[in-house]
Specification:
Blueprint lengths: L1 H9 L5 E8 L18 H5 L9 H15 L3 H4 L1 H10 L15 H6 L2 E3 L2 E2 L9 E8 L1 H4 L7 E10 L15 H12 L8 E4 L4 H10 L8 H4 L18 H4 L7 H13 L12 E8 L4 E9 L2
Parallel strand pairs: 6-7
Antiparallel strand pairs: 1-4, 2-3, 5-8, 7-8
Length: 299
């Protein structure tokens, strides 16, 4: 949506565009885990008979394959959830703000949902919403708050069901990230804050790797030793993410909101000092759609 809005503004088709999303899925109890119900789809014919939890079991298969192929452990993957909780403890708006710290053992010993993912590997179910406003740089510079520039963007749609996926350990984020960085004229080394969709711990792990922040098969070692926690070299999901902050069915717009807050210095206790370049990356469907946006302070 950011790409479409940016293109429309640059083409003179619009001056100001609002992108918004909101959901009351928790209070309405609208979230259900189950199979695909449309009988005519390949998913219903070829996958639902195996009774997967949709979408959890599909992401669990990706986690299982990654750990098997590259020799990692669930304890290493749990660092995604542990770090998210540390960020949430700095965010009074976070759903888990008062929940206390999380350990890798807490994650691995929590209730198994779909092997190897436990309940602590899975995002929250909450109400929530957000919005971002895009306009021309000239107009933005005349507004009350500092302008944040869209430096680059990229996207990929790779699949709908899992049936057609040859390798569950690599995603379309490789292409979307490469395009976004090329348009922005920056590299992962230039990024101060990374906001990626963490519907599950494996979603965030695969995204970090695919976006080029580390090499193939290296992400579990890369995120160790506090790298993605507060004070680490690569601050990740600084609001607490979908794992500990908020997850109203779709989290993408909130990635953008938090990235902008960090670049404006509005993060409060969780503010990353001197943040000038931020990346927001969304994952949709069954690791099906991938959108990367590079944002920067206005210079």
């Amino acid at each position: 949506m950011v790409a479409r809005a940016t293109q429309a503004i640059e083409a003179g088709q619009a001056e100001t565009i609002v992108i918004s999303f909101a959901s009351n899925q928790r209070s309405a109890a609208s979230r259900r885990l189950g199979g695909v119900t449309e009988d005519h789809t390949p998913e219903a014919q070829l996958e639902t008979p195996y009774d997967p939890l949709f979408p959890l079991s599909y992401y669990a298969m990706a986690a299982q394959q990654y750990l098997h192929r590259f020799g990692g452990t669930h304890e290493q993957l749990a660092e995604i959830a542990v770090a998210a909780r540390e960020w949430a403890l700095l965010n009074p708006a976070a759903y888990r703000f008062d929940a206390g710290p999380l350990t890798a053992e807490d994650v691995t010993s929590s209730r198994m949902i779909s092997s190897p993912l436990t309940v602590a590997d899975c995002c929250l179910v909450t109400d929530g919403g957000g919005a971002v406003v895009l306009t021309s740089l000239e107009r933005a510079r005349d507004l009350a708050k500092p302008a944040v520039r869209v430096l680059g963007y990229g996207e990929r749609t790779t699949n709908t069901s899992m049936t057609a996926v040859q390798d569950l350990t690599t995603t379309g984020a490789v292409g979307s990230g490469a395009d976004a960085f090329a348009r922005a004229g920056v590299t992962p080394a230039d990024v101060d804050v990374l906001e990626v969709y963490d519907s599950f711990t494996i979603t965030a792990a695969l995204s970090i790797e695919a976006l080029g922040f580390c090499g193939r098969g290296e992400v579990l070692d890369f995120i160790a030793d506090g790298r993605i926690r507060p004070g680490g070299a690569l601050p990740l999901d600084t609001a607490g993410g979908g794992l500990s902050y908020c997850h109203p069915g779709q989290y993408g717009v909130l990635l953008l909101v938090e990235a902008v807050r960090q670049l404006r210095g509005e993060g409060g206790a969780r503010q990353v000092p001197g943040a000038e370049v931020a990346v927001a990356h969304g994952t949709g469907g069954i690791m099906s759609t991938h959108a990367t946006v590079v944002l920067g302070v206005d210079r």
